[in-house]
Amino acid sequence: MLCARAPAVARFRALHTGPVTKDLFSWLKRGKSKEEAVEKPADTKELIGKIESGSSGTQSVARKVLKLKLEPSDFVGMDEAQLARQLHRERLEKVQFRRWLSQEKLSKPEELRTLVAAAYETTFGAPGDAAALEQRFPDLRSMFIFAKHMQASTGYIMPDAQLTRLHTPAAVAQWYERNVLTGKLQKFREELPNAIDLSDADLPVNVVVREHVLPKVQRKTLNAVLREVSALETSKAKAALERAKAT
Predict the structure, then answer these.
(1) Are 196 and 188 contacting, i.e. CB atoms less than 8 angstroms apart?
(2) How close are the terminal C-alpha atoms of the chain, in Å?
(3) Dihedral angle at the C-alpha atoms of 114, 115, 116, 118, nearest 10 degrees?
(4) Stretch 179-204: mean pLDDT, rounded?
(5) Class at the top of the CATH hierarchy for domain 109-187
(6) InterPro entries given for it (predicted)?
(7) Percent of the chain at pLDDT above 70?
(8) pLDDT higher than threshold 60 for residue 143
(9) Distance (Å, rounded) from C-alpha 131 to C-alpha 226?
(10) Judging by beta carbons within 10 Å of its beta carbon (0-12, 13-18, 19+), is residue 172 exposed, middle or buried?
(11) For residues 123 and 145, is the Cβ–Cβ distance under 8 A?
(12) What torsion do the CA atoms of 113, 115, 116, 120 make, to the nearest 10 degrees?
């Protein structure tokens, strides 16, 4: 005969921990360990005796402040600004600049005659005499070749305005003689706005070139004008005040 059984049920017992329960004696002894840990102060007489005898047990040691002295050799690498300058210098040395102006400047009439003859031969392919130098340039190409050779060999740049007025090799040579050999060109730089010499320029009648006035002279003149204006205003004010008193 079969009978039904109840299913088995698993049971678990939960475990837990808590603080140890102390009894009355533990509560009475709770401050004893703290009292033992506190060091009792020494007797005053005993402490004075140890100090006088030199056996106090504590010696004061002077603390020395150690300063670390660093030198440039102690650092590894380079400063950022120094490294940037070095890289810029290295890159600049690799660049090949084409200097078309001669570093040896024209200074003697003999050099000018030699350079004019070399420029003429380079331009026309044959040497030229004095009569050939007086001949006009046949075209603009020959004029530019001659002028560029003269500028490169003499080391001085000719203004474009002058180049358009000079139609013969002799005229170009005369310009260098008047402006370079006399030192006139060294006083002026065409790229500066106030450095163009127009004192002996051939200008129309309605064009007047005034003399350049230095800033110091301008300020001095302006101050003089302001003083005169101030004096006139003061005199007018006094005159008006006197008229008001008279009325």
Answers:
(1) yes
(2) 155
(3) 90
(4) 71
(5) mainly alpha
(6) ACP-like_sf, Ribosomal_m50
(7) 70
(8) yes
(9) 63
(10) buried
(11) yes
(12) 140
